[in-house]
Each structure stands twice: as C-alpha cells, then as structure tokens.
Amino acid sequence: MSYEYTVLPAPLRAEKAPGAKTPTDRYALAVAAELNRMAREGWEYVRADVLPSEERSGLTGRTTIYHNLLVFRRPLAVREAPEAARPMPEYPVTASPAQRPQATPPLPEAASPLPAASAPRVEPATDAEQDAVPPAPRTPPER
C-alpha cells in the first residue's frame, strides 16, 4: 500500500490547562491535541524526529539548530482509471435493439446497371496509345 506523508513542527510551548499542573503535563496535552486534530483529518501518527538544520547566525556565521518534528501518514486515495484505460462495453448502453434485415429495395430504371450484353466493351490500349504524350496545357490568349 502507498502512503502520503506530512511533517509538522512539534508544539514549542503549551497553554495552561485544567488538571495539568507541571510544564511537562501541559506540553503532553498540547502534543495530544495536535495528534487528535490530525487523526480527525485521516492522518496516522508515525513518529517524532529531531533533525538538524544549519541556519545563518549574524552576517557570516552559521549555527546548527535542531527541530522537533511530528511525522504523519495516510493511505493514498485509489484514483480511478482514465477513460481511455477503461474497457468499453461491446454494445453502447443506449443502443436500440437489433432490427431484422430489410430486403433490398428495387433500383429505379435510370440507376440500374446496364445488362452485360449491352455494356460497351473497352479494348486494351495499343503500344502507340500507351506511349502517347499528353497535350500541353492550354493557356489563355494574350490580349
């Protein structure tokens, strides 16, 4: 299964809360509130990490600072296949039922083919006709 991940900074300080007397208790409530908020959005808590980050200090100096991060994940949503990848039905859903084959209607006299006996006979071209050069294209008369 594939997952997508998100990483959030852990709370830096906690608000006062009833029943939480020590700073550690208040901090634990702040972290629990963040975990519950992300769980409502479908994220599963994975772990907390402390990672270094080099940051500028003054004009030319650099300092390494450590960040507390909370890592969450959730399963990737299964995306539907694009239209082209889906198999097409053999017959469209909106197709009408099949009809019986119809008899071929008789052709009118003018469109009917010539009988074989009265058809003009085409003779094969002779060698002289095959080698003939076509006439030059016509040009309009000059004015």
TrEMBL record:
Skewed-composition ranges (Low complexity): 109-120
Pro residues composition bias: residue spans: 134-143
Residue numbers spanned by region Disordered: 82-143
Source superkingdom: Bacteria
Protein name (record): DUF4177 domain-containing protein
Source species: Paracoccus tibetensis
